[in-house]
Amino acid sequence: MPKKRSGGGLSTTQQAAKFLGVSVLAGAVMAGIALPAAGALGLAAKGSVEGFDEIPANLKRPPLSQRTTILDAEGGQIATVYSRDRTVVDLKDISPYMQKAIVAIEDARFYQHGAIDLKGVLRALNRNAQSGGVAEGASTLTQQYVKNVFVEEAGDDQEKVAQATQQTLGRKIRELKYAIQVEEELGKKKILENYLNITFFGQQAYGVEAASQRYFSKSAKKLKVQEAALLAGIVQSPSRYDPVNDEAEATKRRNIVLQRMADLGDISQAEADKAKRTPLGLKVSKPKNGCITAVKGGGFFCDYVRQVFLKDPVFGKTKEDRAKIWNQGGLTVRTTMDPQAQKSVQRSVKKHVYQKDEVATAATIVEPGTGKILAMGQSRPYGIDVKKNETSINLSVDQNMNGGAGYQPGSTFKPIVAAAALEDGMPPTQVYPSPYKMDYPSPVSACDGRTWNEKGVPVENENTSEVGPYDMKDATAKSVNTYFVEMISDIGICPVTTMAKKMGVERADGGDLAQAPSIALGTMEMSPLTMAAGYASFASRGMYCTPIAIESITQKAGGKTKSLEVPKSTCRRAMSETTADTINTLLQGVVEDGTGTEAGLGASRPSAGKTGTTDERYAAWFVGYTPNMAGAVWVGDPKHERKMQSISIGGVWHSKVFGGKVPGPIWRDMMEGALAGKEAPNFNIVHIPDGDKDRDRDEDDDEDNGNGDGNGNGNGNNGGLLGGLTDGGTDGGAFPTPSFSIPEGWWRGQTSGNGNGGRD
Q: Of 389, 527, 654, 665, which one has the fewest beta carbons inside 10 Å?
């Protein structure tokens, strides 16, 4: 039995015999080029190695994965994302010192031999036999490049990576044959360029450009001799020679490379000695990967762009196709983010709602007429540290785009009801009795010939002082619940849900809008992006445009740059210009002398909008717009557990939160900054004759003259919201009571749907 060394490894004789086998194999492969009979050497033996002739003739070289850069609308960088941090560069953009250093230490005879260096094999065999271990390898740069191609193709699949690097004769034969092909096709300079771009340099850096930026914060073109030697030395063992974690070991390795360069005549001995005395001079740049590194608070915008890419069929037929392109990288994505608007959103959000607060806020701005998303931010920053109130959930968007399940918009839904009524022919002077408290009228027509048929289900206004009659102007300004319940009961539910759909206003969880009159009070959960884009329909005089976040994408692969198709906004008419102008007139009154006065932008900047506060005060909103920007602000507990009563938000104490008192000022401040320096066009205002103005409501943030809690109605799971729908006149189930409890841990923006939902 052969003897083993004390360490349990092979003896010197065994090491020599094993390496001799590789040498013979290399010679056999070379012989196989001219002699088909080389198979007689046993290369095709089953269970050991593949037959040389059976190996496919062409090495597939997929484009190298690179970093993707996400830019704002003006070309400023938001973030870089990548599966592997790499920037492919031409050989002319790599320091000559770097080119010489890598050849000197990895394959000194690179320019003298072919794909296989038999002289190097014999030299390594002799040295390894003397040392009793593997002190020197015999792979050429070309062979190493081929191995790296296999590793690159394996991606993040650890099993495939293991197969690509396993120490077997079968893999060695494949590597050798492909190395021969590569030498013939590419030539030495291109092989060296490809090698320097593909190889791993440690610290998450793939390729020499990323490595140069990581360790020295400079381009590979500017590397000095000692810096190039350091990087070249890392390649053999990135963990062992990591200069960040072991400066002494990295210095030794660097000096070995420098001496090797001197021995080969690449530099003089004097240059080598001087470089050896030079400190490493590291200027490390930390890896900056992913949306978590986004600037200007753009983490959630960045994540939304990623979600769009992975989900939109324009980027590939299947999710696997789209993910492959995204992970391949090399993309430059110019987005619609307006840096001025984004900065203003973040500033306002941080000013009014603190990161540590029990509740959060999310805000989005959209451009009317184009659908461009200009800004997106929230008070809880993008991240994974829950203890710091960070989150990776985008509170501004729908659930399928990595958002929550949405939040009841409350009275911000009322203008949609009014738009449906106006389109149905109702005059803006329409008056309803609008008592403080009433039962929902029954029956109420719904879609498909059905009716909502509930009796004895109460609804009430915010304060006991709110007693009609009211016309549309006053009811909108004062957000009178009973007025809009009478309105939807008059025109039916179907025109309202149809109008909402035309305006792109849909549930955040992807479900259908419920066919119940309580929808008039905003009981269906929506996202801020949905509401901002919907209100943009009013600003653009009735044209709804689907939201878009990407302006253009270019992809660099294989030395070529091409443009990719991107999703386009689809615009459609949601309502007539007259209807939109009427709504604009009504909602301008809200900010001038209604519930949204604290959100107004002043006389020099025409604005319009609507407040909303849901039952039990789990959510508060302000959604508003000017002719050139529309924005939505939501405030609440994403877990739907903390009622906004007796609560401190942004350092201000509130006994009860109203949409006009917290979201309103956030909206005002973010819009003022976003619109600074931009034109201030007017709305097309229509004349609406005054109606009965017998009564006014005195709303106060800390006073509630009514009971303030409402009666539970409109649950999204049972009772009147769904159970009230019948095909004839049969009564449905009852609405739930206000004591409806939220199960512990029910989160991500999910809400019960019960309650009036239409405050403020």
A: 389
